[in-house]
Amino acid sequence: MSATERTVLAGFDGSAGARRAVSWAAREAGDRGGRLMIAQAFNWQPPATTFRWVPAEPLAEEPIRRATAGALDALAGDIRQQVPDVEVGTTFRDGPAAPTLAELGEELDAELLVLGACGLSAIPRTLLGSTAAEVAHAVTRPVVVVRGEERLGDQPVVVGVDGSPTSERAIGFAFEFAARHGCPITAVHAWSDLPLAVHDTGRVRALEPDELRSMAEEYLGGWQHRYPEVKVDWELVADRPARTLLEHAEDARLLAVGSHGRGTVRRALLGSVSHAVLHHANCPVAVLRGGENPA
Predict the structure, then answer these.
(1) pLDDT tens by residue, 199-223
(2) pLDDT (tens digit per residue) in 19-43
(3) Of 186, 177, 165, 134, the residue nearest 268 (C-alpha)
(4) pTM for this prediction
(5) What is the structure's pLDDT at 262?
(6) Which residues form the UspA domain (predicted)?
(7) Residue 214 confidence (pLDDT)
(8) What angle (nearest 5°) sits at the alpha carbon of residue 237, between those of residues 231 and 241?
(9) Domains in the chain, ordered, with CATH?
(10) Burial code of 78-116, b = ≥16 C-beta within 10 A, e = fewer?
């Protein structure tokens, strides 16, 4: 698999969450007409012990390395059966997972990095695995963290809008994804006047229909002209952005957000919500950072 081919890169660590993420990535690679690379990072750290005896068969690196590589090959075989039209490759690299995946993404010029929400020790929908968190907040390529329930129907793609460059990237990603999968889009702009109690929604002047149309055209008009087949619902909510996005994404196909936004709209707070939705969303989350627009 060369670096010039369209590639979706999926991280694997042997966990059930990672298996689900690789399956999601395989289908996405097929939808994109691309290839899937499944990557496993091996960072051997012998377990520390305070015992003064040496076991008859000490835990050695090589048997664990072989078993880990074997699990990767077995998974690749399963994925090839699931998506026979997608070319599937594997790579087994030494080193910590997050920097290894980030380097591979650059090496392969991957269009998308896909990770499970939690690894072997994290609690689903409560904790975000350290690898997923590090990669999502470090790389400039689009990252999807697969979490929550997977939905393959026409449920909406929810995207956070705040007028920032990263929000613009998230909107582009959402439109391109929705067009390929035949989904509508729910575009959400939420704001609040600080401080707000956690359960308060605040009180703001209701915008006139003309004002709503003007805002929607400003942020979404170009994308709607580019993807006229995608149905768009525009939601303007006076509430905390993270809570609003999580509520709208409860039954979504995908949630797309920009990371470190704080855009041109006064009091826009989307820049801080990527952390919250990565930890609590009930659907896959796409995180878009700086860089060229992915669409």
Answers:
(1) 344 444 555 556 666 777 788 889 9
(2) 999 999 999 999 999 999 999 988 7
(3) 165
(4) 0.82
(5) 44
(6) 6-147, 156-289
(7) 77
(8) 100
(9) 7-46+61-146 (3.40.50.620), 157-288 (3.40.50.12370)
(10) ebeeebeebebebbeeeeebbebbbebbeebebbbbbbb
